[in-house]
Amino acid sequence: MVRILKYVFKHKSMLLIGSISMLIVIGVDHLIPYLQKLIVDDGIKNGNSSIIVPIIIGILGITLLKAVLGYVKEYLYDYIGAKVHQDLKNELFHHIQKFEFKYFDGMNTGELMSRIGEDIENIWQTIGFGLRLFVENIIYFVVSTIILFFLDWKLASICLAIMIPIGFMAVRMNRQLGKGYGNISDQTAEINSAAQQNIAGVRLVKAFAREKHETLKFLKMNRAYYDLNMAQAKTIRTYFPQIELLTNISLVAMIIVGGYFVLKNEISLGTLVAFSGYIWNLIWPMRNLGWLTDLLSRNQASSKKIFDILDRKTEIFSKSDAYSPDGIEGDIEYKNVTFSYNDEVVLRNINLTIPSGSKVALMGTTGAGKSSLLHMIGRYYDVKEGEVKVDGVNVKDFHLKKLRQNMSLVSQDTFLFSDTIENNIKFGNTEATMDEVREACRIACCLDFIENLEDGFKTEIGERGIGLSGGQKQRISIARALLRKAPILILDDATSALDMETEYELLKNLNNRFSDSTMFIIAHRISAVKNADMILYVEDGEIVEQGTHQQLLQLKGKYFDVYQEQFKDFETVESGVI
Ligand SMILES: Nc1ncnc2c1ncn2[C@@H]1O[C@H](COP(=O)(O)OP(=O)(O)OP(=O)(O)O)[C@@H](O)[C@H]1O
């Protein structure tokens, strides 16, 4: 809570004006029962009728002042709450952006979304409303209690004693409700996550005719949600009438005891009237106590989750004196590199020297470590042992942003934003002109199909590129990478959905137009890797063969086996197309 207050204190002047307004409202509010006492005791009982009209005008004035300052107070606290909400959300989002790939590998997207959404909303509610009400209630309670004791300590003690069970009951009710809200929140996250996954995977569901199963699964979750809400309603049903009853009993008790005191002339009738006004300032804080403590504890839990993320330091970052060149050549060297994601070693003892401008192809069995090998150049993951150098400098000594600005990666899992094709292609180079965009598309063999669309580059594509074929998505993401004109280009199985002819055309364009860039291509077809300057065959975390197409064929090893397998029936295709 203390850390959250730091965000609140950023808006000191608003907080000050809001708090002064709140104190004035509380102050004048406490005058009303006292003025009522004056009307009864002096105005009516003592026959001093001349004070009645001024007091009524005074009460009207107070009501007006309360309304105006009440508005100011509400507005300013809401403003502060919204600002804290905005600041925290921005900071959290910005901080998450700094995390390395490894963090996201182990993170559930739904969970992260609820940190950014639900948990920050909880804090917003607490700051904008709960905390203010909490402070307000304490002041009302303390000031009214003092005034009541000042008016008559005996009646005040009795009233206070009657109030305590209301607070006790309210806390018990909210403790039970609190537990239920926790379960409802977990269940909501589960339902949202199931709905999101089902909608994202709707094609798979339909392809496997699993609609009924998915619907039943969802109905079951929704039923559990309904049951949890009904259990909450039951708690409210049980406690609420009891709280109402206690409130009414305390009011009646106060009138009976107070009336008795009036009859015995221990207090005046006006004092009893004032009591019945002030007593609400005790009843409401007691009734609110439960849900306010619950709100504050929920805020505590949400703050902890949020600050756990904000306090997490990213494992991959630039050193303070990091190397920050204007541009890079693209020479790459691996020296005795060993790598593992967790404990299991994925790559061992990798040694490679790749001069800038080289075209390097990687082949091998699935899971052999090809993608992992290339992820270390841009420090998406760090080596466990050894070093990876770019232009002779250890990548760990580079300024991370500079290093990554000089690289372009097209990953296996094509991702396109729900936006226009143009904006998707310009994602890595927003300053690019349309001529440059067209040129990148020409090289990536996607210009014709984009221009043939009704809205051309302005065509909106759905989430993850829905509405496009797999090959179209791959070519758009290659165009996006090319537009960055980076000296290091990595195509990680990025042409797998293209037909052989288009793939050949695209790679030929790349070789011609990006001859200076160091280019890596992971592919499974001989046709895609055949013209590379260096082919690496990776197996079980090691480079088992390395050389040009001809050298590897002569070696008659793994690469040769793949070649034979792919071309045993296609000798004619090889001579024609490749
Ligand atoms: N983020 C990750 N966390 C943990 N293990 C991983 C992660 N990514 C890959 N692996 C594991 O590391 C090994 C190498 O994976 P990698 O993706 O580098 O292989 P690959 O040769 O590119 O495979 P493919 O051709 O199927 O894409 C595999 O055993 C894989 O299960």
TrEMBL record:
One of its GO terms (molecular function) is ATP hydrolysis activity. Coiled coil: none annotated. Residues 332-565 form the ABC transporter domain. The chain crosses the membrane at residues 12-32, 52-72, 129-149, 155-171, 243-261. Keywords: ATP-binding, Cell membrane, Membrane, Nucleotide-binding, Transmembrane, Transmembrane helix, Transport. InterPro entries: AAA+_ATPase, ABC1_TM_dom, ABC1_TM_sf, ABC_transporter-like_ATP-bd, ABC_transporter-like_CS, P-loop_NTPase, Type_1_exporter. One of its GO terms (cellular component) is plasma membrane. Residues 16-298 form the ABC transmembrane type-1 domain. It comes from Gottfriedia endophytica. This is ABC transporter ATP-binding protein. It is found in: Cell membrane. It is a multi-pass membrane protein. Its main location: membrane. CDD domains: ABC_6TM_YknU_like. The keyword Membrane applies.
